DNA sequence: CAGTGAGCGAGCTTCCGCTTGACTT
């Protein structure tokens, strides 16, 4: 009943944006934000709405049998957003959906309309820069939702869901639990694996080359300069780039090439020292260099990494703070465009800081090189219509450093070209006599050699005065090499001739920024996801970092091979690029969502669909896929990824036994050479420790880590009769492999301990699969603690046996909670604690509490619901379970171990600390101006 | 990968892209 005035509700994606736009639009507008997507496919089984739970496809959240209809749910953390948007809408008589102007933004607008169900006129509003004029302009160009664009987004979303949720379970079955596959992560992993394969296959080549320090005479400035010896006779001297990855010389160019060894290089060096040197040719060319484009997400991450040492995550987190503090524009962007007002601001600053000569006549315009760029935002630049210098911001620490970087890059992008000159000088060496050098592939006899010196001078630095991009190797753009003025025929003398040996190096591993750059080039992933892609492949143990380098695990090798062999097209480097083309067709109304998804999922005649690929797994031989040869084929050495980790194996020789040993988790695959494998095999149990000799048998007692945890055992003599099994004893949980001593080990090996006699039978105490227990004939009872194995007396044992067995300790525990009678069965429901955590039971049916359920807060209604659900699907399972019962049981125990290991590993990843400090600084900016 | 006894419920993991919180130390 807001009678007095009419209001328009504008919804954008980001709260920061909302605040800014509200200032431009004035009091007739309420501006709110959705904070990204507000609804999505259900993330897991528990978030699937009850009415779909019985459906076969509920697991996917997509009804694959009926036009790929999607179930959309509002995640719990989004409910407050929806509520407040609805409240704002109640005050408004018009709704403008002003989410980003790209595929995802259009979809968010559509989801907003679905969830808010507006009764007032609703239009779509799109602007590409946050300036008052751009926003005023967009108000005059309102439109309806573009349903084709929404369809394109939904196609993308559903395809990703089908890929991820159908292929991941294949990995669980064939490899290990908790693995994952997806359109983006699987290709990212494959890139890292492929690079490691190249490194493993790489064969280094050794070669020598020659450098000469030359003297141009007393008047020359500089008098001395460096040159390379490039030719001997008519043969070019090989450099690193003349060798291929197999270490072979490649025939490139017209001149024949010779690779020098040490002897040959020294022969030539001696000869040049005594040669007459003269300038043969001087060639100079003008040099100009245009500034770099302003930052987008990937280039900012790379430069923040190289210049400031930030990880991708760190760069984004600091940038987020700068954005929220109003210092920079949006940091997740693939655009390099600057708004007109930004160009004006940058040019003004160029003039002020560097002067007119550094300002090009007309503004520079940058267009995106990113092929699938969505261009919903500007480049990353200082915010506002005038740029604050870093000092004027009052920032400090990481925020200051990143702002400074962004500011300089933006200003530099509107500066003049760098101008200079490059000079190439060719020098002839007339050798004192003819020289003959030989290499395996060639023999050369020559009486001349050629040297080359290159120089670069920069006469006007232009933008380089403000910003020079860092390089991983090679020369940076502002590096200068000065040569003296030289003229043809001029005589020179050699100060020094140096022969040096080199080896070709394998291709470098990816780093975080270089992998992200590669993904961007392949159009895989989006600015908002680059940082999380790295997090995902690290969390899955596909990749780990060694320094800055990303190293794949053998697990990644195995998973990648499985995907390459059985889902070939899905991990094709072009898969996403092709998908983007198809999505463009959908967005343009030239292809249909259902058809695209159907072809993908059910196949399109020629190609098999995903469904078939993920159902017919019979021909996937997991063991074969997980086994890799080491060195040559006949080395007999293999590395295998198993559920217990990665091991090297040596094939049995003759009728001997094969050997195996664990491979350390942090050993890069390319370092697992034949030698390394043999070294590992030489001490089969990595953590084995000898504790001493058994006093009776004089055999060594060792402590090892095994399949069921740490244990001690006796090493049998070589000549022990075949089939003799050594005694073993598991360590108590209170003991440690590193500290256990011989006495304790002997006590463990002496088990079972005889406690005494009871009812004419011997009672023993020992450790077992389910923990410590007593045994009397076939009657066994659990003990409370492991220590009791050594301490329990016969009287105490008698007391334990006097208790009835069936209702032992487990049942003596009271239920955690009583829920009253089940309305369906009228039986009392209780919550109990079991092997798999808390569960509810009515004495007949049992059902685990689900995610989100809590023992404290669970209601009788929920208990009854869980039981009813369980009863509904109970019987179907029993029949299917029978056959593989044994396997399943074995799987379980191991699965638990790997999960435990994983979660422990994951734990340290947190990223909160820095946020607060920078935010604080942002608020105290007024005090320090420059 | 060592090999020890019983008897009791499994359910869940996973994708990619938009965005910011609010648990704790």
Automatic annotation (TrEMBL):
Residue span(s) of domain Toprim: 7-131
Chain segments carrying region Interaction with DNA: 180-185
Ranges for domain Topo IA-type catalytic: 146-608
Coiled-coil regions listed in the entry: none
Gene Ontology biological process terms in this record: DNA topological change
Leader peptide range in chain numbering: none
Region feature Disordered, mapped onto this chain: 650-669, 803-930
CDD domains membership: TOP1Ac (cd00186), TOPRIM_TopoIA_TopoI (cd03363)
Gene3D superfamilies (UniProt xref): 3.40.50.140, Topoisomerase I, domain 2, Topoisomerase I, domain 3, Topoisomerase I, domain 4
Cited function: Releases the supercoiling and torsional tension of DNA, which is introduced during the DNA replication and transcription, by transiently cleaving and rejoining one strand of the DNA duplex. Introduces a single-strand break via transesterification at a target site in duplex DNA. The scissile phosphodiester is attacked by the catalytic tyrosine of the enzyme, resulting in the formation of a DNA-(5'-phosphotyrosyl)-enzyme intermediate and the expulsion of a 3'-OH DNA strand. The free DNA strand then undergoes passage around the unbroken strand, thus removing DNA supercoils.
Record-given protein name: DNA topoisomerase 1
Source domain of life: Bacteria
EC number of the protein: 5.6.2.1
Active site: 330
Site (Interaction with DNA): 37, 156-157, 160, 172, 332, 540
Composition skew (Basic residues), residue ranges: 873-919
Lineage of source species: Bacteria, Bacillati, Actinomycetota, Actinomycetes, Propionibacteriales
């Amino acid at each position: 009943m807001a009678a007095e005035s009419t209001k328009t509700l504008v919804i954008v994606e980001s709260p920061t944006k909302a605040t800014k736009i509200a200032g431009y639009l004035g009091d007739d507008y309420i501006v709110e934000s959705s904070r990204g997507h507000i609804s999505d496919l259900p993330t897991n089984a528990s978030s699937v709405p009850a009415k779909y739970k019985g459906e076969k496809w509920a697991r996917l959240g997509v009804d694959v049998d009926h036009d790929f209809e999607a179930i959309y749910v509002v995640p719990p953390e989004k409910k407050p957003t929806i509520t407040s948007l609805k409240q704002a809408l109640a005050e408004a008589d018009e709704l403008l959906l002003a989410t980003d102007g790209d595929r995802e933004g259009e979809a968010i607008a559509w989801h907003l309309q679905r969830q808010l169900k507006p009764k007032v006129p609703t239009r779509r509003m799109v602007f590409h820069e946050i300036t008052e004029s751009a926003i005023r302009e967009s108000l005059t160009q309102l439109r309806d939702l573009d349903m084709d664009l929404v369809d394109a987004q939904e196609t993308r979303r559903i395809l990703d869901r089908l890929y991820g949720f159908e292929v991941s379970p294949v990995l669980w079955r064939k490899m290990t639990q908790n693995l994952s596959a997806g359109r983006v992560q699987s290709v990212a992993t494959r890139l890292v694996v492929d690079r490691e394969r190249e490194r493993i296959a790489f064969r280094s080549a050794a070669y020598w080359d020659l450098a000469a320090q030359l003297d141009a005479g007393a008047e020359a400035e500089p008098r001395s300069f460096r040159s390379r010896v490039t030719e001997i006779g008519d043969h070019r001297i090989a450099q690193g780039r003349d060798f291929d990855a197999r270490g072979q010389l490649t025939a490139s160019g017209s001149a024949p090439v010779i690779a020098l060894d040490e002897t040959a290089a020294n022969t030539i060096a001696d000869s040049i020292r005594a040669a007459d040197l003269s300038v043969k040719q001087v060639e100079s060319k003008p040099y100009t260099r245009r500034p770099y484009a302003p930052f987008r997400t990937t280039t900012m991450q790379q430069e923040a990494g190289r210049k400031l040492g930030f990880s991708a995550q760190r760069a984004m987190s600091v940038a987020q703070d700068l954005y929220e503090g109003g210092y920079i524009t949006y940091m997740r962007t693939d655009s390099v465009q600057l708004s007109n007002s930004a160009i004006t601001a940058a040019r003004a600053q160029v003039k002020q800081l560097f002067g007119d000569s550094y300002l090009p006549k007309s503004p520079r315009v940058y267009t995106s090189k990113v092929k699938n760029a969505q261009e919903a935002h500007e480049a990353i630049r200082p915010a506002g219509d005038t740029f604050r210098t870093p000092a004027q911001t009052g920032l400090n620490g990481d925020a200051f450093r990143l702002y400074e970087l962004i500011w300089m890059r933006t200003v530099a992008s509107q500066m003049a070209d760098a101008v200079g000159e490059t000079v190439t000088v060719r020098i002839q060496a007339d050798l004192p006599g003819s020289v003959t050098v030989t290499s395996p592939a060639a023999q050369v006899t020559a009486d001349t050699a050629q040297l080359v010196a290159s120089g670069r001078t920069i006469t006007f630095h232009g933008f380089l005065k403000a910003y020079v991009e860092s390089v991983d190797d090679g020369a940076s753009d502002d590096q200068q090499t000065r040569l003296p003025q030289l003229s043809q025929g001029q005589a020179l003398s050699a100060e020094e001739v140096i022969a040096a040996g080199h080896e070709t190096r394998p291709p470098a591993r990816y780093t975080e920024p270089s992998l992200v750059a590669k993904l961007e080039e392949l159009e895989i992933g989006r600015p908002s996801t680059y940082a999380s892609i790295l997090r995902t492949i690290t969390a899955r143990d596909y990749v780990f970092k060694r320094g800055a380098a990303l190293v794949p695990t053998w697990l990644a090798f195995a998973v990648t091979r499985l995907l390459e062999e059985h889902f070939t097209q899905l991990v094709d480097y072009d898969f996403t690029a092709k998908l983007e083309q198809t999505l463009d067709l959908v967005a343009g109304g030239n292809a249909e969502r259902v058809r695209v998804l159907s072809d993908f999922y059910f196949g399109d005649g020629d190609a098999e669909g995903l469904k078939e690929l993920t159902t017919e797994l019979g021909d996937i031989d997991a063991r074969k896929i997980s086994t890799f040869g080491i060195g040559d084929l006949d080395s007999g050495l293999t590395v295998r990824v198993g559920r217990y980790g990665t091991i090297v194996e040596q094939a049995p020789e003759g009728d001997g036994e094969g050997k195996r040993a664990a491979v350390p988790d942090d050993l890069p695959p390319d370092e697992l050479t034949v030698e390394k494998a043999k070294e590992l095999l030489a001490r089969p149990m990595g953590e084995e420790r000898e504790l001493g000799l058994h006093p009776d048998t004089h055999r060594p007692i060792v402590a090892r880590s095994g399949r069921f945890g740490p244990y001690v055992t006796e090493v049998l003599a070589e000549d022990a009769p075949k089939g003799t099994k050594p005694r073993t004893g598991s360590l108590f949980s209170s003991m440690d492999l590193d500290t256990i001593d011989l006495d304790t080990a002997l006590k463990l090996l002496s088990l079972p301990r005889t406690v005494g006699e009871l009812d004419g039978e011997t009672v023993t105490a020992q450790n077992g699969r389910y923990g410590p227990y007593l045994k009397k004939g076939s009657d066994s009872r659990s003990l409370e603690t492991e220590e009791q194995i050594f301490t329990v007396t016969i009287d105490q044992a008698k007391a334990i046996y006097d208790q009835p067995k069936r209702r032992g300790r487990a049942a003596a525990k009271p239920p955690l909670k009583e829920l009253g009678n089940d309305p369906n069965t009228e039986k009392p429901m209780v919550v109990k604690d079991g092997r798999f955590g808390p569960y509810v039971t009515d004495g007949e049916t049992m059902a685990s509490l689900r995610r989100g359920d809590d023992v404290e807060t669970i209601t009788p209604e929920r208990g009854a619901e869980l039981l009813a659900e369980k009863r509904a699907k109970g019987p179907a399972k029993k029949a299917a379970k029978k056959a593989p019962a044994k396997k399943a049981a074995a799987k379980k125990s191991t699965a638990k171990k790997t999960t435990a290991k994983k979660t422990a590993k994951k734990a340290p990843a947190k990223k909160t600390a820095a946020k607060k400090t920078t935010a604080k600084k942002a608020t105290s900016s007024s005090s320090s101006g420059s």
